[in-house]
Structure formats: structure tokens, C-alpha cells
Write a structure and sequence with these properties.
Elements: H1 4-12, E1 21-24, E2 33-36, H2 38-41, H3 51-57, E3 62-64, H4 68-82, E4 89-93, E5 96-99, H5 105-108, H6 111-126, E6 132-134, H7 138-147, E7 153-155, H8 158-161, H9 178-186, H10 192-197, H11 200-207, H12 210-218, E8 235-246, H13 249-269, E9 272-283, E10 288-299, H14 304-316, E11 323-335, H15 338-344, H16 346-362, H17 370-378, H18 384-387
Parallel strand pairs: 1-3, 6-7
Antiparallel strand pairs: 1-2, 4-5, 8-11, 9-10, 9-11
Helix pairs in contact: 4-6, 11-12, 13-14, 13-17, 15-16
The protein binds a DNA duplex (18 and 18 nucleotides) through strand 2, helix 3, helix 9, strand 8 and strand 10.
DNA sequence: TCTGGGGTCCTGTGGCTC
DNA sequence: TCTGGAGCCACAGGACCC
């Protein structure tokens, strides 16, 4: 999808069409740009840019908060539409998917024709545009889509790997980020062609085991097929950046409790249990530290995970330091089998079920752990994890 | 005047067991 | 009985993606 969040906003609010639209954190806050319209990009605004910078570049822009529910509605509609063309649809993110149309050609025509039909149908149904890339691998298809934004259809073939692709900056390739780009530049390698040609021992000396992967990327090779089944998530987490830095341990404990509560609710909602609990703390120096603990068995009850998170915070020891972000995530996930809940004890299981029932009926924020609720009152804004919950009854 | 939140994947290190 | 290596796991951190 092109400028996805911003496009959805422009589609549902015609008065915003043709204007610079910036979707992301609150104006004057510590957030960043999640997405911006092409009209906003003219001013130099881009995703991940701090909001205060975007404001400075384009004070007349329309700054909107993230309305994830609205974007997910469009997302689900588009995924349903894609499923009409092939069973092999891999949903890569809220605004990206891969389709294997190898077996669809007799029914729907060549890939380019399929792409054009999808584009038209997405626009007719949702009023937003998408860019589609065609290629023999996911990597080349993604690259082709990126080169034809917005609203384009492009193709990269194996022949292009040693042709058109060679002049591209290495940073265009998915998987080569700013750090790798910088390291490659230090070796004098700035284009895909240079990365293809550099003697392998030289690359290996600089990147070790990563050298092989880099070479494969430069050749457009990705060996993973399009997978339609959604694997078990690897982790579930919540984190919050405070409006003002915090060094009050009680406040941090409360925030952590609130975040953990939200993460555990999602965990249970998905029928999962977790064995590993991780704490993340970012200090005002932007130095970030993590601590994690693996429990004896997977749990999904309300109590043990917040307790582990609180222990980790105590062990870390904030001292006199100021904290700007605190987060928690759980990993090592398994399906929440009956046996596991038995291990946790019937009281914990009953408590969790009761909490879930009340929240299902009256909204997530109808019921809160005391420490978390007190913290939310003391913070200017409640934890963002809660913002993604269904609206309260 | 500062730099989000949701994730995945990889690597180096160190402890433990065989 | 001691030692070194392999394999596994947990942990911490970092790069990267949208």
C-alpha cells in the first residue's frame, strides 16, 4: 500500500486530499511519524521522523493520530480481495503481502494483468492505491514494488539482477539498513553492482558470517517460498515512552504493571502461554538495557508475569537515573494447553477468566490492577498498549 | 529539541552437561 | 580423575522491518 495510514485518512476525509497529511504521535509530544502522504514528503517529511521535526518542516500540515482500527479494516478488506486470486497469500505486515500466482495464470491471465486488476479493485473498494512488484523471488518482487511507488506496477527478472539492479544504491535492498550501508560505504561499496562484484574474501573479512547473506541479497536471491499459514507469534510486548522522564520507582512499577496486564490479556486472548519475560528500560541518555528471565513453565495467568517483570526491574536497579521508556514482552510462546493452566493453580486460572469476561463485556479499562490504575492517573497519558484495545462499553 | 511501538532474526558469550 | 570439545540453552544486545 502507498503511504498507507495517510492514504486511508485521505480516502475517508476528502477535505484532506491533496494536502500534506502526517499520521503519528501527538503534536508537541515525543512521538514520530508513522506515515505521511506524498504531499508531505515534498517538505522532506518521512516515516520515523520525530514529530517536532515534521512540525518544523511543515507547520501547515494535517497532523493526525494513528487510528489502527480504521487501517486494519482496510487491511482485512485487501487481504480478502487478494485471496480471490490465489490461496498462497503471505501477509507480511499491515500494508504488505506476497502472492504466489504461479497457479493462477490460466484463470486470471499473466501476472501483470492480475496486478492491474488487483490495483483497480483495491482502489474501487477502499479509495487507496497500492504498488505491485512482479518477480521470481519475494526479494525482487518487493524491490520492484518499491521502485514503482506510488500506484505503479513493475517487474524485475533474473536478467535485471545483472542489469538494471546494478546501479541501485545498496540501501534500497530490503535487509540492508543504515548501519550495514555505512559499513559497506567504508569499503567503497555503494551500489548493488559493487556488492555483486567485490571479491568474496574481502566481504567475508569485513562481515564474517554475514557476508554470504549480503551477497545473496545483492543477487536478489531469497529462498523462502510464499507461505500462507500464519505461524505462532514469537513474542507479545508493550512499551511506553513517558511524556516526561521518570525516576520514581513506584511510578515505574505501576507503569510496568499496566503494560504487563495489557500484554498478558493479549496473550490469553490468543490462547497462548509464555515462558520468558523480558524487561526493557531506556534511560534519558537513550542507553537501552534489557533483562529477561525464563520461568520454570509457560504461564498465562494474571499474576506470575507481572511479578517476574517487577523482579527484573528491582534487579536492574534504576538508582538515580531518569527513565524515558519502559517496556515488557513475553516470548517462548506455546499454546495454552489445559495441563499448563492446571500447573498454575485453579485460583489463577479462575481469576484470569473472570477478568477476561468482565473486560469482554465492559471494555478493557473497566478493570485494572490497582498499581497500574494509580500510575495511569499520575501519567499525563495512559499506556499506549491500551489504546489498541476495543473501545470501552 | 530531541529520537515510537509493534515485532523478527541474528550473534557473541557463558554456563551446563555429556 | 581430569580436561577439552561439542551441543544446547539462556541471556544481552543490536540490526532491521513496517
Amino acid at each position: 500500500m502507498d503511504a498507507f495510514f495517510a492514504s486511508v485518512e485521505q480516502a475517508r476525509r476528502p477535505e484532506l486530499r491533496g494536502l500534506p497529511v502526517i499520521v503519528g504521535g501527538e503534536r508537541g509530544g515525543r512521538g514520530v511519524v508513522s506515515a505521511c502522504s506524498y504531499e508531505a514528503r515534498v517538505f522532506g517529511i518521512h516515516s520515523a521522523m520525530p514529530i517536532f521535526q515534521a512540525e518544523r518542516l511543515c507547520p501547515q500540515g494535517a497532523f493526525l493520530p494513528v487510528d489502527m482500527k480504521a487501517y486494519l479494516d482496510v487491511h482485512h478488506g485487501v487481504v480478502e480481495l487478494l485471496g480471490r486470486y490465489t490461496d498462497l497469500v503471505e501477509v507480511a505486515s499491515v500494508d504488505e503481502a506476497y502472492l504466489d500466482v504461479t497457479g493462477s495464470r490460466r484463470l486470471f491471465g499473466p501476472p501483470r494483468a492480475i496486478a492491474l486488476r488487483i490495483q483497480q479493485q483495491v482502489y474501487d473498494a477502499h479509495g487507496v492505491t497500492c504498488s505491485i512488484g512482479l518477480g521470481p523471488t519475494k526479494l525482487l518482487a518487493k524491490l520492484a514494488a518499491g521502485l514503482n511507488k506510488p500506484a505503479g506496477v513493475g517487474e524485475l527478472t533474473d536478467a535485471d539482477v545483472h542489469g538494471r539492479l546494478r546501479d541501485l544504491p545498496v540501501g534500497e535492498v530490503c535487509g540492508i539498513g543504515p548501519v550495514t550501508q555505512e559499513r559497506l560505504a567504508a569499503l567503497g561499496l555503494t551500489t548493488v553492482g559493487m556488492l555483486q562484484d567485490v571479491p568474496f574474501p574481502l566481504l567475508a573479512a569485513a562481515f564474517g558470517r554475514g557476508a554470504h547473506g549480503l551477497r545473496q541479497l545483492s543477487l536478489g536471491r531469497s529462498f523462502s517460498p510464499v507461505r500462507s499459514e500464519r505461524p505462532l507469534p514469537k513474542s507479545v510486548g508493550r512499551e511506553i515512552t513517558f511524556d516526561d522522564d521518570v525516576n520514581d520507582l513506584e511510578l515505574l512499577r505501576g507503569a510496568l504493571l499496566s503494560l504487563t496486564d495489557s500484554a498478558v490479556a493479549e496473550l490469553r486472548g490468543k490462547g497462548l502461554a509464555a515462558r520468558t519475560v523480558a524487561l526493557k528500560v531506556r534511560f534519558n541518555t537513550f542507553h537501552t538495557v534489557g533483562r529477561r528471565r525464563t520461568l520454570a513453565r509457560p504461564v498465562s495467568a494474571t499474576r506470575p508475569i507481572p511479578e517476574a517483570a517487577a523482579d527484573l526491574l528491582d534487579e536492574l536497579g534504576i538508582g538515580a537515573r531518569w527513565v524515558r521508556l519502559v517496556g515488557v514482552s513475553v516470548s517462548n510462546l506455546t499454546h495454552n494447553a489445559f495441563q499448563l493452566t492446571l500447573d498454575e493453580g485453579w485460583r489463577e486460572v479462575a481469576l484470569g477468566e473472570a477478568v477476561d469476561k468482565v473486560r469482554a463485556k465492559y471494555g478493557f479499562r473497566s478493570l485494572k490492577l490497582a498499581g497500574g490504575a494509580l500510575t495511569d492517573r499520575r501519567l499525563a497519558h495512559p499506556s499506549p498498549g491500551l489504546a489498541f484495545q476495543p473501545p470501552d462499553a
